[in-house]
Amino acid sequence: MFWFLLAFIFVFFILPSLRIIGPTEVGLVVKRFGLRKLSKDNPIAFSKEAGYQADLLMPGWRWKFWVVYKVEKFPWVQVPAGEIGVVIAQVGQPLPIGAKSAVYKKEFGDFSDLRGFVAQGGQKGVQRPVLSPGTLAPIHPVGFLVITRSKVYGLPVAPELKQKGNKGILTPEAFGLAAEQLELVRIEPRTTPKTGDLVDTVGIVTTYEGDPLPSGDIASRLGGFADIEQIEGKAAADDDASLIETIMGSKNSLHNNYQDFQAFLDNGGKIGLQHDPLLYGAYTLNPFLTSVEITPMLVVEQGEVAVVKSYVGLATEDTSGEEFKFGMLVRPGHRGIWREPLRTGKYPINPHCYQAELVPTAILTLNWAEATSKAHDLDSQLEQIIAKSREGFVFKIDLQVQIHVADTKAPKVISMVGTMMNLVNEVLQAAVGNHFRDKLQSMPAIRFIETRQQVQEEAFAHVNKHLDQYQVETKGVYIQDVVLPVDLVKVLTEREIANQEIETFKKQKEAQDQRVMT
User: Fold this and answer.
1) Would you tell me how many other CB atoms lie within 10 Å of the CB of residue 392?
2) Which of 93-107, 163-177, 303-317 is least confident?
3) With contact defined as beta carbons under 8 Å apart, do 471 and 413 qualify?
4) pLDDT band at residue 506 using 50, 70 and 90 as cut-offs
5) Residue 248: how many other CB atoms lie within 10 Å
6) Is 39 helix (H, G, I), strand (E, B) or coil?
7) Residue 506 lies in a domain
8) Residue 37, C-beta contacts closer than 8 angstroms, at least 6 positions apart
9) Given a cut of 60, is residue 216 above it in pLDDT?
10) Which pLDDT score is estimated for 177?
11) Is residue 413 part of a domain?
């Protein structure tokens, strides 16, 4: 009888209570009944209440009395290479009003210590750090949900999440995330769709958590522009290089390139567009808190400068002087057109904060013809000059103009005309076209043909005087070709034939007279 009772106890009580937890599994313990109840906002029992227990069963042989406890097996959280894991806490204190993510403390580690997380004041909701590629951790499946590209780990407790699951399986889309948002953000050279050329890039960051931007600002820069004010107070009035170097320098080291989002907020990071972009690399960024726009890096080649129009910085302080009436030029770090251009180099600037206008400083050749320059497209809208002579003959003139913009004067030129394209199409085209039309209309067609060199010299003087008002040098004006009217060609041809006939007649008469005399 004793052995029978012992066998009965072993078969029906001890053996069913044994649990084998695999090497990469955890056992979630569910207490079937208990004297104490859970609080309304807490799905996990920390003091032996009925329900999901805070302590997990680790790998190995474990025993839990089956009458009182049920054990469910869950895999360890594993983040594959090239992916991230976004953590959402289902336990802890509620988020403050207006907060979108939970405060992170170093004591939380990789969120594998549920009791420590709750004891240290962990909050429910999206956690600011993400799990890095290669992470393998025994994370509580009820305490935390972990979203990866291929799988969502954990057991959701919110009814709306349970409804979104397909046969109990959640996907990133259930949380409003696309699968590609759960990959590392890579900043690397990319090919352009049109030409296939490889171009340098930067990552423009927008954050969705933090205090609002100060009134009038469009982007957040840690510490604002206080460092620029300090440099201006110490540096010489004409030392703009140090200001440019400071602005181009990044403060991303303070928060590990937005990867430590808690440090970003602790250092005064604001919500919205960020001033400092990401450079080449792969980054573990929280898709709930950041987004990255890949945009080309500013590259200034040899023979050109970049005039910067700044939309962020200190208040505008004009340095152009009273004589300059075409806008204001400012020192780097202020809003407005910088008086100092950027020279040859690569600059990781945010195009939403700084607009760069490239200005060629080599001699620029512009063609008023069907052919355009291969070095640039500034003359793509220029066409042959069509003008009428006094008699009404229509001429088509191919013209070439060479101009030069000094690098030190480029900011003033852009302040006056806006862009180099405007300089060519609105300033230069009008000056050149009107001059030739007026000149031809005031003179006979034959005279234009006979005095072509003089007309060219007068055109140079006119264009040089006109562009000098815009601080642009004129290096040459050249009439390349003139397409003569058909009617005029006919008249000239007939005239030339008549002249040749007269000469021929004279020669014949001279020969006849010579024969008579001899």
Assistant:
1) 10
2) 163-177
3) yes
4) confident
5) 16
6) coil
7) no
8) 49, 50
9) yes
10) 94
11) yes
Give the separation between CA 94 and CA 141, rounded to whole angstroms.
19
One domain, residues 408 and 351: no
111 and 50 assigned to the same domain: no
> What whole-number distance in Å separates Cα of residue 501 and Cα of residue 494?
10
Task: Give the count of domains, the chain.
Answer: 4
190/338 same-domain check: yes
- The H or E element containing residue 414 is helix 410-417
DSSP 56: P
Residue 504: CB atoms within 10 Å: 10
Mean predicted confidence (pLDDT) in 479-485:
75
Answer yes or no: do 210 and 312 share one domain: yes
Taking CA atoms, 413 is separated from 323, 361, 495, in Å, by 14, 12, 50
pLDDT in tens, 351-390: 999 999 999 999 999 998 876 665 677 888 888 888 888 8
Question: What span, in angstroms and rounded, lies between the C-alpha atoms of 3 and 9?
Answer: 10
Quote the pTM value. 0.84
Residue 26's beta-bridge partner residues?
Answer: 74
**Residue 489 belongs to a domain:** no
Q: Let me know if residue 45 belongs to a domain.
A: yes
131/65 same-domain check:
no
* Beta strand ranges found along 284-335 (DSSP E): 290-296, 298-300, 304-310, 329-330
Domain of 422? 361-484
Mean pLDDT over 151-157 rounds to: 92
Per-residue pLDDT tens for 228-241? 999 888 766 667 88
Residue where a domain terminates, one of 34, 49, 75:
75
Judgement on whether residues 326 and 220 belong to the same structural domain of the protein? yes
**CATH (domain of 398):** 3.30.479.30
Give me the phi and psi of 104, to 5 degrees please. Answer: -110, 140
Contact residues for 456 (Cβ-Cβ < 8 A; gap 6+): 477, 478, 479
CA separation for the pair 391, 368 (Å, rounded): 24
Burial 49-85 (b: 16+ CB within 10 A, else e): bbbbbbebbeeeebebebeebebeebebbbbbeebbb
**Could you identify the residue written with the tokens 């080291």?**
253
Which of 342, 359, 376 delimits the end of a domain? 359
Q: Please tell me whether residues 372 and 462 are part of one structural domain.
A: yes
Q: What does the pLDDT read at residue 375?
A: 61
pLDDT digit string, tens, across residues 265-310? 999 999 999 999 999 999 999 999 999 999 999 999 999 999 999 9
One domain, residues 143 and 226:
no
